[in-house]
Amino acid sequence: xxxxxxxxxxxxxxxxxxxxxxxPAPSPSPAPTPAAADISGxxxxxxxxxxxxxxxxxxxxxxxxxxxxxTTSAIGNGTIEAGKITGKTFTAxxxxxxxxxxxxxxxxxxxxxxxxLSGSFANAGFGSVPFSAAKEKK
Length: 138
Known about the structure:
Blueprint: H1 2-21, E1 41-49, E2 52-63, E3 66-73, E4 78-86, E5 89-98, E6 101-112, E7 116-123, E8 127-135
Antiparallel strand pairs: 1-2, 1-8, 2-3, 3-4, 4-5, 5-6, 6-7, 7-8
């Protein structure tokens, strides 16, 4: 009787340890990140600054999902830094000369069909300035 009891306990221990030793199911892999849109090149951008349209020539240099660039306009020039593209959306920091004053703007936007951009420049003093742009044809 003791042997039967010990044998039963041994079998239960083996099954219990086996159940705990099983590896958990692997978690599903995350969805792949969409490829970064290509926004390199020259863009003719129009910003709506409180009803006044400002024409800005933007030149962007892109490497993978990051970019930098320059801006040229009648009110001043600037540089685009720390640009990041995720799928069709982008963010960057625009350091612009606005009538002799250097001003930092947060730049956010999206790409449409590879030839159009839309978004905004934001700054505490200027608020949000919407823009749209069309890529220059080569």
